[in-house]
Amino acid sequence: MSLRHALLGLLSDRPASGYDLMRRFDTSLSNVWPATQSQVYGELGKLAKGGLLEVAAEGPRGRKEYAITDEGLVELHRWLTETQPERMRRSEAMLRVFFLDQLTPVEAFTYLSTEAERAAGRHEALERLEKSVEWDEGPLSVNGRLALEYGLRFTAMYEEWARWAAAQVEARSGQDLTRSEPGGAPHREPAAQVLLDPEVVGEQSPDL
Which residue in 181, 205, 38, 52 sits closest to 111, CA to CA? Predict the structure, then answer.
């Protein structure tokens, strides 16, 4: 996936200004493909120059409303049907699991417990997002719920796995590691930070 195709996809639904696109990004695509304002506006200019978008209307203070062209629709369809998505194969979180023997049982247990808490925090943030969005029967809304459901299922699975793995470490140690965790229970991240975390919908997910 690329930013250019994300913008083409959003504009295939209806024309929008750069500001409108940023708002839609923040409540939907930013959870799977983050982009800054400068990146979005820069890409819009490139797409318009390449004939994939056109300026449909102009307003005060240089506001431009963009619409996808026939060439843009062809490119979006080509990307969806003729290319394969990039598969995330690297996971630093999983890489560390291979070397947990270099840690004390308490340190390994704490690491896995923290991973579980992070996943739980992401899951709760997605649940709040689900409740805050005014869903409708439009294509972006319907498909957005499919992507959100993936995030909910992945974070639930990851939390369950991390708690199971922590229990395995505790069982092998023969100790009650829950009481030995330094600093008590791990701190959960604020929801705003969680929602912008690219891992929220599975940067660590397996290559399917």
Answer: 181
Q: Is residue 35 part of a domain?
A: yes
Residue-by-residue DSSP string for 124-185: HHHHHHHHHS---SSHHHHHHHHHHHHHHHHHHHHHHHHHHHHHHHHHHHTS-GGGG-TTSS
Same-domain status, 148 and 74: no
What's this model's pTM, rounded to 2 decimal places?
0.71
- Do 174 and 136 belong to one domain? yes
Lateral strand order in the sheet of 64-68: 16-17, 64-68, 53-58
In 10 A of CB 20, how many CB atoms?
Answer: 16
Domain that holds residue 49: 3-82
Residue 87 lies in a domain: no
Instruction: Provide the 3-class DSSP secondary structure of residue 57.
Output: strand
Q: Cα(first)–Cα(last) distance of the chain, in Å?
A: 15
The Cα–Cα gap between 171 and 168 comes to: 5
Residue 106 vs residues 42, 159, 187: alpha-carbon distances, Å: 48, 19, 17
Instruction: Give per-residue pLDDT as tens, 77-118.
Output: 999 999 998 887 788 999 999 999 999 999 999 999 999 999
The region, left, alpha or beta by phi > 0 then psi within -120 to 50, assigned to residue 124 is alpha
Rg (CA), the chain: 21
